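Lab notebook, bench 4. The sequencing result for the construct came back, and we need a structural model before the next group meeting so we can plan mutations. Quick request posted to the team channel:

Model the 3D structure of this chain.
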Amino acid sequence: MLSRNIVLLTLDAFGGETTGKTLLLKRIFFLGEILGRDFGYRPHYYGPYSDDIASDIIILKNYGLIEAKTHEYGVAGKGGFEVRRFDYRLTEEGRKAVQWLKAQYPEEAKSVEDAARLIREAGEIDYMDLSIAAKAYFILKKNQQPMAPKQIAAEAKNFSWQVENPQIQSAVRFLERLGMVTTTAPF
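Done. Here's the predicted structure in token form:
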């Protein structure tokens, strides 16, 4: 199944809309990990990022299958970066496309729904906490060995990610609830 179909099914599985591009990208990151799919995620400022998924979002918007609403928050920092959030929701045509996908690819669509349910059951967390959880998981997967929260926080600096030990502890608890990591000792 094409990754852009996964984007549509993900939006649908989370109620047809999402608040913020970062949240959508991190949900798809975790869906990909659960489903064993590589969507080309690499280190980026807000954690693992996929150019492919970001492009799919633009394509789906251009096709009229999703709608993007931009919220402007002004300028931040000395560099004058514009601060904005992109919210996405399925359009009527997008909902029709999702129904078609569910009819044509019922097993794949169900696997996306099941993965989304696992993410929701692990605890609804905001985009920043989900980003930190994605960073922690990315580091743990890259290192392929158990790591203490302070080791994860230290490794994060190699990607220019600023995370603190308490944030990592919270992220690891989310990953445990998701069934992606196990710990044997309390933090």
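Residues 125-187 form a domain with the Arc Repressor Mutant, subunit A fold (CATH 1.10.10).
Will bring this to the meeting.
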